[in-house]
Design brief:
single chain, 129 residues, mainly beta, six-stranded antiparallel sheet, 0% helix
Length: 129
Amino acid sequence: MMLLLIEVPSMSQTEKGKFILGGDTKLSFASAKVNKGTEYYETGSSKVQSFEFTPQFGFFPVKDLAFGLGLRYSYDNSTVYSIEYKSSSFYLMPYFQLYFGNSNVKPFLFASAGIGTGTNVETGYNSSW
């Protein structure tokens, strides 16, 4: 068993003039075998791949309140039988983050809204429907 201890200094990181760097990422894969249950349809498979990356950068103009900007890129690729669906999007997302309390660990409220662009493409059998 391994234990890692980290000492946290008592200085606040939410003081006026400080910067904040954050974000999240998501990667997922799934696969399934699909049976139609009749003799007229072949069994098939489906696959799903998805990726999302959202870096964020912010600034504290006053204590415990950060304003920032996030950039979100997402990509999804799904294949069901012989039909492939692909989508991607890019968003520019301003945000604010408000911290509560006086301890070293503070709960916070986060809100964001954005504007972006995306594409959706379908290829394969009956893709024009």
